[in-house]
Design goal:
This protein is an alpha/beta fold and about 400 residues long. The protein folds into 2 domains: about 270 residues, Aminopeptidase (3-Layer(aba) Sandwich); about 110 residues, Alpha-Beta Plaits (2-Layer Sandwich). Helices cover about 35% and strands about 25% of the residues. It contains 10 helices and 16 strands. The protein has an 8-stranded mixed sheet with strand order 1-2-4-3-5-16-6-15, sandwiched between helices. It has a 4-stranded antiparallel sheet with strand order 10-12-8-13, covered by helices on one side. The protein has a two-stranded antiparallel ribbon with strand order 7-14. Helix 3 runs parallel beside helix 4, helix 6 packs antiparallel against helix 7 and helix 8 crosses helix 10.
């Protein structure tokens, strides 16, 4: 099976689909037309699929022979960004843009389906193509995990993410932690307002709010192993509207990012206990809200990641085997359920005027030749996993 030749043969189709999705971006949980287009393309290819009420689509390439099941995941949601690329296929949906490359992920998955259907008789087991919604709000993979389990599960899951931090021909694929987990919290400290000249007659929420911020900041060095990187960031604090009025409440908001999954529950406990104890000592109360669904770290399976590293090197790519990012991705839950890897593939190419523009930027774009590499890499990885 010449998977490189198939990736080259179907590259124009992948580019066409990428540009279609790029023109018509849809926000998380609103991927109505994106999902519809995916289903239309799968029908043309003769690939059976199931479309779910939340717009998730899972297609099955079944060889009809015994073997493993491998899930290839691609997220398909866009961001609330006004595009400034000037591309001829720029977003036609005002204020919404594929600024994180998910148009590429969905397109590559369709290209993989088109290619593998040509060699289905040479495969064993099953390949699932998982078109996942709502990555940007960290909700989509929760349902996808259950959908895949309902289909009988998968032995492995794999995915890649495009980006311009690296050049075309480069890939980052660590055999271990790859991206941080995140807990996003908001604490409302509730006191009783009053005049600034008479704090004894009020219950000031600002002082306990400040103490909570300082105590959370000291946690990494006082309560957590120094070998476990963790970052508490208070990014929002608000209380009061005048210099002589003690407010009724103060609000603290922030994130915790970490790489050790076993710290998830202790972090919740720290947030709850510290804020409780401080508030009780000041005679005020508090409420705690978790703004996004908490997300565990992305951790690659060592054996599968090392296989991916070897395949990428055999393809001539420059492989970064160390390093991890502080961003978060709900691919974490799929890897936790179905061991595999998540990799970042480079898309910058200064020779073509495509610089190192960050994901989520209004000017984000890619060298579309990277899609050919990504498609080939995912197909080779999935097929090798089927035969392991």
């Amino acid at each position: 099976m010449d998977l490189k030749a198939l990736a080259e043969k179907n590259h124009d189709y992948v580019v066409e689909m990428r540009r279609y999705f790029h023109r018509h971006p849809e926000l998380s949980t609103q991927e109505v037309n994106t999902s519809k287009k995916i289903c239309e393309e799968l029908e043309k290819m003769g690939i059976p699929y199931k479309a779910y009420p939340d717009y998730t689509v899972i297609a099955t390439i079944d060889s009809g022979k015994p073997g493993k099941t491998v899930l290839i995941r691609g997220d398909i949601d866009a961001l609330p960004v006004t595009e400034e690329t000037g591309l001829p296929f720029a977003s036609q949906n005002p204020g919404v843009m594929h600024a994180c490359g998910h148009d590429c992920h969905g397109a590559m998955l369709l290209g993989i389906g088109k290619s593998l259907m040509e060699v289905k008789d040479e495969l064993t087991g099953k390949i699932l193509l998982g078109f996942q919604v709502a990555e940007e709000n960290l909700k989509g993979s929760r349902t996808m995990v259950q959908y895949v389990k309902d289909m009988g599960g998968a032995d492995n899951s794999i995915a890649i993410h495009v980006g311009c931090a690296q050049n075309i021909g480069e890939i980052m694929l660590p055999a271990g932690p790859m991206a941080s987990g995140v807990i996003t919290y908001q604490i409302r400290v509730k006191g009783r307002g009053g005049h600034g000249s008479a704090p004894h007659a009020a219950l000031d929420p600002i002082k306990p709010a400040c103490e909570i911020v300082l105590k959370l900041a000291s946690l990494p060095s006082n309560a957590i192993d120094a070998q476990d990187p963790i970052v508490f960031s208070t990014c929002h604090i608000e209380g009061g509207s005048a210099v002589n009025i003690i407010p009724d409440e103060a609000v603290i908001g922030g994130t915790v990012r970490y790489f050790n999954k076993d710290l998830t529950q202790p972090i919740f406990d720290y947030l709850e206990n510290i804020s409780d104890c401080v508030c009780k000592s000041y005679g005020v109360t508090r409420t705690m809200e978790y703004i996004f669904d908490p997300m565990i770290p992305v951790v690659n399976d060592k054996e599968v990641a090392e296989m991916g590293q070897r395949i990428a090197e055999e393809m001539g790519m420059k492989v970064t085997k160390e390093g991890k990012g502080m961003g978060s991705d709900d691919m974490a839950l799929l890897l936790d359920a179905f061991p595999g890897f998540y990799a970042n593939i480079g898309c910058a190419n200064e020779a073509k005027g495509i610089g190192h523009v960050a994901n989520h930027n209004a000017c984000f774009t890619i060298d579309e030749d990277a899609l050919k590499l990504g498609t080939e890499f995912l197909m080779k990885s999935a097929c090798e996993l089927l035969n392991k």
